[in-house]
UniProtKB/TrEMBL annotation:
It catalyses: L-histidine = trans-urocanate + NH4(+). The lineage of its organism: Bacteria, Bacillati, Actinomycetota, Actinomycetes, Propionibacteriales. Pathway: Amino-acid degradation; L-histidine degradation into L-glutamate; N-formimidoyl-L-glutamate from L-histidine: step 1/3. One of its GO terms (biological process) is L-histidine catabolic process to glutamate and formate. It is an enzyme of class 4 (lyase). This is Histidine ammonia-lyase. Keywords: Histidine metabolism, Lyase. InterPro entries: Aromatic_Lyase, Fumarase/histidase_N, HutH, L-Aspartase-like, Phe/His_NH3-lyase_AS. It is found in: Cytoplasm. Belongs to the PAL/histidase family. Its EC number is 4.3.1.3. The keyword Manganese does not apply. The gene is hutH.
Length: 517
């Protein structure tokens, strides 16, 4: 008996939690009984139309610009095979396993709505691939984000036919037919409309959106930790984060971020040391003082994206769709990825700007004219040692890349299919670059945390707040050493990145102050 979590599809929209469990944690998947009945009802409609003399798009016609050709009954099984084989035209590196599992789950979710006309055995085989950890090989390039993520989904449909390449649960590359046999599964012979139902959805871009939202929610709280450490380490004031100041500009994200900063710096001897009236600092630089405004705007944008993702998770994206209660099949434009593509691009802007302000806070530590008494570049013996000079270079290189990635993909459109598909969303491209942006943000924040930790050590004997001290201790326990002579920095940077991406930095702070908002 497997100890893995199991989720049931077809009892309502897939939740963020369930998607992450399947995509990242390998949860098993089954289909609910009510969903199987809905699948059967829709299938009856498709079979009636398939038997009728009147052409029905996707059932007895060609596709896209070839939709005007009526396909005779004996050729319809070949029609579905040809559709999947021809559309499995991806190129480039393999897409990550978690992305492929997410798009498979979301396609299955649409199949279980009873609006696609799939057969139950085809849907059950897709669930079986997920449960057995069989992941079709999907390539980087091929989707225009309109008519769905056609090429990526076609590679998955190909595996259901026992064709193409997959990776098994251990990650070994093998022919799909061999993987199915090893798992005790049998390939399907696609029937009328099934090929189209399997490939016509926004599932890849939506899966990447949900995972990016989950990652950004964690990273933005971690960015608050980094900002608190920087304000503290640069002898900044926490008074600008007071709740009464946030209340007069009532953006919800700003208030949450500011509250985090106040909590994180509570009981800091470093902050207390310059609260006296003889401090000649009137106000801090924008990168310190405005952290809640930037981080808060980022939070609000992420939550807007979550609203869009929630709507999409509740959708049945296919063309044509089966309206089983009315006994008909209708063409529509719901496959267009614009709603998802826009917020994917918006989040890339968020990642770039939060990384940008993080890099500016870091740079202030390294400049002796702005660091308020710290060694140049936080070096042990400046001149002999370069300290963290080049760590900031690395940050700057990443931030520059993130600014390029913030250019929207969704404003581009290259017509396809002989001008039948003359406006496309490029949402898959938006999602692919957002994944790079989220990774880059984690790297930039990690370097700020690492830099701020060294600065806090150098403020001794004054002690930081209990929360930021817990973060410093976590870094030191992971082998990221404090001040001292120059050493090989790259392993320490990568260790810091791992601590940020795993949530360990967040957990360290929250072990003191409780859950951050």
């Amino acid at each position: 008996m497997s100890n893995r979590r199991s989720i049931t599809v077809g009892t309502g929209p897939v939740s963020f939690v369930d998607l992450l469990a399947v995509a990242r944690d390998g949860a098993e998947v089954q289909i609910g009984d009510d969903a199987l009945k809905a699948i059967d009802r829709a299938r009856e409609v498709v079979e009636e139309l398939a038997a009728a003399p009147t052409p029905a798009y996707g059932i007895s016609t060609g596709f896209g610009a070839l939709a005007t050709r009526h396909i005779p009954t004996p050729m319809r099984a070949q029609l579905q095979k040809s559709l999947v084989r021809s559309h499995a035209a991806g190129s480039g590196p393999e897409v990550e396993r978690e992305v492929v599992r997410a798009l498979m789950l979301l396609r299955l979710s649409t199949l279980t709505t009873g609006h696609t006309g799939i057969r139950r055995e085809t849907a059950q085989l897709l669930a079986g691939l997920l449960t057995h950890g069989i992941t079709p090989v999907v390539r980087e390039y091929g989707s225009l984000g309109c008519s769905g993520d056609l090429a990526p989904l076609a590679h998955c449909a190909l595996a259901l036919m026992g064709e193409g390449e997959v990776r098994d649960a251990s990650g070994d590359l093998m022919p799909a037919a061999d993987a199915l046999v090893a798992a005790g599964l049998s390939p399907v012979e696609l029937a009328a409309k099934e090929g189209l139902a399997l490939i016509n959805g926004t599932d890849g871009m939506l899966g990447m959106l949900v995972m990016a939202i989950a990652d950004l929610r964690m990273l933005l709280r971690t960015a608050d930790i980094a900002a608190a450490m920087s304000v503290e380490g640069q002898l900044g004031t926490d008074r600008v984060f007071a709740p009464e100041l946030q209340a007069i500009r009532p953006h919800p994200g700003q208030a949450l971020s500011a509250a985090n900063l106040v909590a994180l710096m509570a009981d800091s001897a470093i902050v207390a040391s310059h609260r006296t009236g003889d401090c000649n600092r009137v106000q801090d630089a924008y990168s310190l003082r405005c952290s809640p405004q930037v981080h808060g705007a980022a939070r609000d944008t992420v939550e807007y994206a979550a609203v869009v993702a929630g709507r999409e998770l509740s959708s049945a994206v296919d063309n044509p769709v089966v309206l089983a209660d009315e006994g008909r099949v209708e063409s529509n434009g719901n496959f267009h990825g614009a709603p998802v593509a826009y917020v994917l691009d918006f989040l890339a802007i968020v990642a770039a700007d939060v990384a940008s302000i993080s890099e500016r806070r870091t740079d202030r530590f390294l400049d002796k004219t702005r660091s308020h008494g710290l060694h140049p570049f936080l070096a042990d013996d400046p001149g002999v040692d370069s300290g963290l000079m080049i760590a900031q270079y690395t940050q700057a290189a990443v931030v520059s890349e993130l600014k390029r990635l913030a250019n929207p993909a969704s404003v581009d459109s290259i017509p396809s299919s002989a001008m039948q598909e003359d406006h496309v969303s490029m949402g898959w491209s938006s999602a692919r670059k957002l994944r790079r942006s989220v990774d880059g943000l984690a790297r930039v924040v990690a370097i700020e945390v690492m830099t701020a930790a060294r600065a806090l050590d150098m403020r001794g004997p004054l002690t930081p707040s209990p929360a930021t001290a817990a973060v410093v201790a976590t870094l030191r326990e992971a082998g990221i050493a404090g001040p001292g002579p120059d050493r090989h920095l790259s392993p320490e940077i990568e260790a810091a990145v791992s601590l940020v991406q795993s949530g360990a930095v967040l957990a360290a702070a929250e072990s003191v102050v409780g859950a951050l908002a």
